[in-house]
Every structure is written in C-alpha cells, then in structure tokens.
# Entry
Amino acid sequence: MIKKYLALVLLTTSVFFTQQYNIIHYVKSQDKIGNQVWSIFQDSKGYMWFATSAGLVRYNGWEYEVFDKEKGLIESFVFDISEDNEGNIWVGCPSGILRLKLGGDPSTPLEIQNISLGKFNDFYRVFVDSYQRIWAYNTVSASDVYFIDKGVLHNFSEKYRFKNQRVLHIAEDNRGVYMLTDDGKIYKYFVNDISEVTLPSEALGIKSRMFFFNSKGELVLCGQGGVASINLNDFTPNPKLNLITNISSMYAIETKFGDYWIATEQKGLIKVNENSVSAITEENGLPTNDLYTLFEDREGILWIGTAIKGIFKLPSLRFSSFGKKEGFTQGAISSITVKNSNIYCTTENGIFLFDQYEFHRIPLNIDRKDIVSPLFIFYMLALNDNEWLIGSSDGLLLMQNNGKSNFLGLKNIWVQTLFKDSKGRIWIGTNKGLYFIDRNFEINLFDIGIKDVSVNAIIVQRDASGKIESQNLFLGTTDGLIVINDIINNNFGNKITRFTTEDGLSSELIMDMELTSEGELLIGTAKGISILKNNNILPIDNDLTHPFIVDLFIDSLGNLWAGTNYGLNKLVKKDGKYIITEKYYEKDGLVSNEYTRNNTISQDKYGRIWFGTFQGLSVYNPDEDHNIQVPPICYLSSVQINDTLTYSMNEMRAYFSYNENKFKFFFEGLTYFDEKNVLYEYYLEPLESEWSKSTDIPNTSYGYLNPGDYIFHVRAVNQFGIRSNEQSYRFSISPPYWSTWWFLLLLGFLVLILFYVGYLYRTKQMRKRNLLLQKLVDEKTHQLKNTNEKLETQYKDLLEAQKKLVEKEKLEEAFREIEKLKNRLAVENIYLREKQTTVYEVSSLVGNSEGIKYIRKLIQEVAPTSSTVLITGETGTGKTLVGEAIHALSERKERTLVVVNCAAIPDGLIESELFGHEKGAFTGAHIRREGKFEIADGSTIFLDEIGDMNLHVQAKILTFLQDRKFSRLGGNEQITVDVRIIAATNYNLEQLVNEGKFRKDLFHRLQVFNIYVPSLRNRVEDIEPLSKYFADRFAKLMNKNITAISKSALEKLKNYPFPGNIRELENIMQRAIIVCKTGVITDEDIVLSQINGGLKQALKLKESMLTLEDMERQYIYNVLLKTDGKIAGKDGAAELLGLHPNTLRSKMAKLKIQLK
# Structure
C-alpha cells in the first residue's frame, strides 16, 4: 500500500519564492530551433539533439544543423531520439523510424536509413536496450511493437502475442525491458517471455505517461495524478516522492546528484530532494509553465522541452536574483545587513526588509524638515533589537524598527561606514574624516589630520576566535591605510602608522578590508588586493592584482569573495596563497557585474550569501553549487590543405606530397554551461613543444611545412578552466621525388652504368693512344741520349755559378753590415761635430766650498748606477758640468754623452729631435732620421732646461721612462734602447706642476736622485779659484802672460752678486784678460758696468722681498735695456748673459718680458 504524502501544494507556498534564475531560452524566432520540442538527447560524442516539429536538430554550442525532409528524412516532424553503441542515431517519426549513420566527426550523415512502420499520423518512439536492440512503438494509437536485432526488423507484437497495445513508454533495468501501456499497466519482457507487473491500485490511479528506474532500482511513475515511486520487491513507497499530488506531470528524471526534476502541465518545474520540494515557474523566469520533456546532460545541465515555447536550459540554481515581483523596487544597493533571519538592504530607493518570504519597504520618518533629498542610505548598524544607526548622504540618523528616525548630527557629511568596538564606542567613517560616539552618545571628531580624507572602511584587530582584541583600529581611506595603535584602551595619545603605495600598497584608494582568522588584513583597493602581515604590505599574486576591488567578504567556510567593478570572484587559500577558483558574471545568474560599495556581501544563517550590486540583489545557494568537474569534449573537425581543399576527418589522409605543405586545422569544443566561452590550446609536434596560449578562435594555420612526420595536438578549456582530453592527428609530408631514397638509389645505379660505359670507351681510346705514345717515347729517348751529355755539362756550369752566387750574397751581406755601422758612425760624428760647437766652461768642478764638496760626493754615489738624475739650480751654476761628471764616472763613459738643450729647440721640432722621424712624417722629412735617444743607445742623454719642454713631449719622455720604448714621429714601430736620463733645469718644477705647466707624474719619475747646484753668490769662497782658473785659461788662448789677480780686483769680484753665476764670471774674466796691459789683473780691469750701477744695491734691497723669478725677470729686463733690446749677435743680451739666443727668447716668453 502506497502511503500518500502531501509534499507540495503549488498554489500556497514555495521555497524558491519568486526570485529569478539564469534560464537560457532557445526559440524558433531566434532562428534556432522549432517551438515544439518532443525529445532531447545527448549522444556519445557530446552533441545535443532536439526532436522538433521543424526537423531533427544537432547543436554543438554555437551552431545548429537541421536534418529534415530535404536532407532525406521521411518527414521533417520527428518525435524521439536514441543512440546505439555503434554511434547510429535512431529517430522516431510519424510513420516509422530512421537511422543516421554518422562518421567519426561532426559532418553531414554518411547514410540515412528510413524504416516505414505505420501511417503518417502515428507517433513512433525509439528505445535502445542494453542488448543493443532498437525498439519502436506507436504512442498515438494501438499498433504493433517492433524491434531491430543485429540489423533485422522483428514484429514483437506478433511474435509474443502483444497485439493492439498502445505503448506509451519503454524502460529497462537488470530484470528486463518494461513497457507502459495506455491503461496504466506495465509489462516486463525477459528471455523470450512477457508478463504483466503487479502494481498497487494507487499506482494505477496516477494514469502514468512515462516511468523510469531510479538509482536505487525503484520504479518511478509519472502521470496525470502526480508522481509515485515503488520498490518492486516489496512494494514499499519512497516517502520523498509518494505522493506528489495536485499536479499533472509530463516527464521526470533523477539527476546525478540524487535530486528529482518533474516537468508538469501548467505548474512549471518541480524539484524534489532530501530536504525540500520546490517549484520554478514563470514567476521565476520560466518562459512557460506548460512543460513536456526533460534531459540532464553529461555536465549536469537541465534541458527543458515544451510543446509551444521551444527549448530552454537551466545550468544551475546556485545564483538567483530578486526584483519588482517580490516588491523589491531596488536599484543600486549600498549595504546588506543580516539580523536574526531577516535581510536588510539599503538602496537608492530606501531600506528594504526581506523576511524569507517577501520584501517590505521601511519608510523613513525623519524629524528634520531640511533633510537633503534624495537621501541616500549607505550603512546600517544595529544598536539593539529596536534601534539602528543609519549612515546617509546627509549625516547620521537614529532609526526605530518602524522607520521613525531622529537626526543625530554631521549635516551635509556622507556617513559611509559604522563600527562598534568592545568599549562601546561607535566609530564613524565619513567623507570628511573620522568621528566617534562616546558613551554619552555625543559625536566627536577624532582629529588625526585626515579631516579632508574619505574613510571608506573601519575594522578592529581580532584574535583567532573572532574576539575583538584591545589593539589596533584599521582605517581604509582614499589616502591609503591608517593604523591607530591601542585605540580600544582609550589611549588617545596613540601612535599613527600610514601605509601608501611607497610601502607596497597596490593603490591608496581603499574600498574595503577583511581580517582573516590568521590575523592577516586583506585590503581591497582600486588596483587589486594587498595583504598586511607582520606590519608589512604583501601583494596577492593572481588575476586580482589589478581589478577595482569594491567589497571583500569571508564566508563561514573560509572562502574569500571579492566583488569588483566587473564580476564576482571566489578565492581559497592554498599553500599560503589566495587562488581564484571561480569567476561569476551576469551570464552565470548574477543580476549585475558591478558592485557599489563595501558591506554589500553578507551570509545568512542558512549559508546563503547575498550580493548587492548596481542593478539589484542576487543570492548564492551553496547547496546548489555542485562544482561539477566534467571536462569539455574536443574534436578536430576538418583540415584545409593549401587554402583550397578541405577534408573532414573521416576523409582525411595521413600522407601528403611535398607541395601540400600549408595546413589549416579546424576544431570544436563541446560544453554547455557557457557555450560561447570555450577556449582552445594546441601545438604542432615537432615544430612546437609547448601548448599555445588559450584562444577562442577554433582554427589555426601552419604554412610551408618541411617534409617530415608531424602530430597536431589540440584540447578545449571550459569556463571553469577544466581541460579536455587532447585530440591528436598524425600526418606526414613526403619529400620531393628527387630527394627520396629510391630516386637516389636509381640515380646512383644509372651513374654507375654511365661510368662503366665511359670506362670501356676510355680504355679502348687509351690503347690506341698508348701505341702512338710508345712510338713518340722511342723517338724522344733517342733525342734525350743525344742531349744528355750537353745537359751534364750545363749542370756542372750551373753548380759552379751557384757557388759563386752564394759567395757573392755573403759578401753583399757583410757589405750591408759595414754600411750600417758606417751610417751609425756618421750619425755619431755629426753629433760630435755639433757638440764641438758647444763650449763647456770647465772639464771638472772647480771650488773648495762645502756645497761643491757635497756635490762631488753625490756624483760619486750616483754615477755607478743607471738611475735617473735631476740637477737643479740657477742659470750658469754649472749643471751641465755636473751631468758630464756623472757620465764620466759611470759605466757608460765609453759612449758619448748626448746633450740636448730643450730650450734651444723650437716646440715643433723637439719631438723629432729627441725621438727621430720617419720618411714623410711631415713636410721636409725626405729621409728617415734617428733621434737623440737612438744615438744615445748604451750611453747617457743629458736633457738640459727640461722645464722648457712642452707637455706633449713630456708625455713621451714619461712613456719611455716607464717602458724603455718609444716610436719615431710618423711611425708605429716600438724601439727599445738602453739610455740613462740626466735632466737639468733652472725652474722650480714643483711650482710648474702646480701651475699645470709640468706633468706631475714625470716630475716624480725624474725626482729619483736630485742634485742641487748652489748659486755663486752663495759660495763666495769659490770666486777666487774660479777667477784664477778662467784667467789662466783665457791667458793661454790669447797668448798673454797673466801672473796674478790683485786683491782689490778679487774684493771687487767677491762683493758682486753675480746674477749670471759662473757664466757671468767667465765673461767678466775674459774681458779682463783682453783689457789687461800688465801681468796682474787689477780692479780697473774688472768691468762690472754691464749692469747699471744701482743693480747691486737694488738686488740687496729686494733680495728678501722678491722671488728668484722676479729677480731674474728684473735682471734680464735691465740687460735688454742696456743693449737697446738687441738679443743675438755681438754685445747682444744673450752674449752678455752667457745664454743661447733661443734660450733667452724662451725665458723672455716664460717670464712675460716685453720691450716697447
């Protein structure tokens, strides 16, 4: 006995209420399918089939293919669809059935077989049992039942005496095939026997239209009287389904999740599960309440066919939305608050209360007349069971449950968020900074310097249990994150910490914040989510790095929901990172993709999550989110060759010629949650080794492929990121015939034959030629014998001539060596002749002063070495004699000392003089000339007046001192010589270095060993021996007998300062010898008139005031005045000063002496 349960009374109540669902409608008016849909089916390849009044329709998600009478069907009107295990599609038609034989790809049928069974006005259905028998039965009138077994048609009614039966439905379980007749009876066929199934009387009253066996093996009946479920073993009813009454059911199915869906006549769609019975009707978005058939596809999507409104699908019930039908004149929602079982929504049209049945608007009755209109409500904070704090666009209100409201303050200020801490203070976030309400309910400004900053979100740090800790208050503002430390303990002298983009924040515009159970602060900004952890800002590394985050919410399962300016995202934390698991948009059932403000996501006690958007309210039911991980199906449909020929895959070849090298692959992915959101990934092996980026283009091209073996791989990706199994196509491109092995082998064989024929011909010709050559050889042999003796004689003559030639070459080599030495001697002779023109004052140092004795000691110490020596002192002190003495005592004394007066050589010639030049190095360089350094190889070079050398030549001198190498002017050859350098100068080189006139590095190179020669006025004791030395020398030259120098003459000389030093003394003594008339030089013979009479006194007066340079400038200037500006020649200033004229000119330029 079936116990009846009144499980649903459709006219009185409904769990689904009247919220709207994401129902997609396909109708004929959209150029899609017919409006009369009798059957829905999904084949083994994943294609959807619809039996309609306009034909048989196959749907792959983006296009429809219609099979009708024009394509070979008996009639365009089809009634039922099924498939056997060979992939044949069986279709029930008005006058019979037909079979469509399809290929292995989605192309037109390869074969259509029409099987006529009855009259035109009959409606035949088809059923394929587990033995692959195809059953055909007429549902309109009593007629025979047929089945096809192994291709043979059998009349079941005649064979088993089952005549004149109108069969409405056929189903099967492991006990046999069951047939439902129009009188409500069920017959079972098993092992060549047919018998009636005994049913309870209540079941017969249902007037069944169809039936099926559920997952428990129970028989489920569906008919005019409702739905019932019976266990055929003991006839016990299923309380979940027994008995749904007051409805006329047309079709029912059990889903893979254990739910039951029932298509009714005029009552819409009914869902039955363990917990509830609910209905979806036209008020929920169904196009019609009059339904005909149902089908659940491989992805769990429910397809619904109707007799008047076409077909529509219900992908999921996880999202629904509310509108005006529920009394909810919503618009943009600014906040959602859950209190007890009620949902409070603040909108641009006021405040609404949802009591789980319907929406009620709460009218605001405000005690102010000057309230701004329209008044926008931003936030609600429950104070107790009867009172609310309301944040609005015109200040803060206190509202009773009945809507009566009092204005508390903050006029013309937007109150955007409210928060109550554990101490009872209420924090108010506004567009004009932060306020709080104390225990006396007075509003106070919390002045932390953010009066012009908008505070969008407030949150207090909590512990792992959710309890508010007495620590930090976090403010999300338009100017970054602000942390107020220890605000709960009334510490108003607290520390303020700010975080901006410089600290790693994604953006300084913060819309919302959430605290996790682990103490992490999630920050929603205009450029994604940031995390505050351990006082450090960390970014979230996923697709939410950049979107505008409006609202954040963590549900009871720990999932993070992020509402953005485009769509809703669901994230979970895995391995320390937040991973996006789902993305939801309007196409998934949301009422809008755009969220308005924070606090617009909330969860009720039933686990449902409510979302407030710009377009209204949506709700997410986690019980309906089955998270089906069914991969899409991918097919490689066709291939186009060389942009012309297109082959379907059943026609596709595996081998192509070398000129068939351009391929375009067409593929398709089958998924029906979101048909348009199918992506593809592919690669061509071995040309590519990694999958391409996901693309929505269902084809790709490869051009000019080289001969070889290839495998094309492709796979589809659905909207959830689930990938299909990959499809592969192997093909080969053969090389051109001239590069094939058989052609090369044949070519090689032909070449061998040609070589062999050529060999035979060549051999024959060689034999003829050998005979002729033999004759010629004999003749030539005779001639050679005659000339052999001549050749021997000539050979002996050649040997003799070669011997003489070798001897001649040796003599020439010796001559060249002599010539080279001769040239070297000539160069040295030229230098010696030049040197002979220079008159040296003495051949040795003369004097008995301590200075001269010290100089002799230094000379003896440094002479045996090869060290560089720098000799300094005034002009005329005998620096050249010191240099000659060092060379004379050195190991290089056997070679000539090479002396170069740097001041006497113009700047343009000094480099050539020292280092030589190559032929053509400059105008007039007609031959190569060796420089002084090459002449001094193995000897010593004396660089006199080195302070007058220009910086360019100084650099080359420095390079030589470092590397002992140089190159001639105009040449690149590096010449290495062994030369010792002795340099002399009358300048203060340190001063020249400071003035930038002398290289500092060269100065340090020359400063290895310094000898200073004191001036003559500083060693007066040497005047007498020097005077006697010069007197004897010039007396011999002039053939005069000079025996002595008078004391008065010596006193006169000793009292003279000798600005010109020894050279000036030499000139004075030479003049004295000339004018001396007796054998004794008197004071009258000593003429000091070359200098004006007051010079001595002037020098004495200025000696302590003038520098040596100033004294020298004044002295030379006075000499030039005496000679009327004459520099060179007899009685010229150069002769009087004992200087070379060029040296004097150089000094005049350096001392800036000019004569007008």
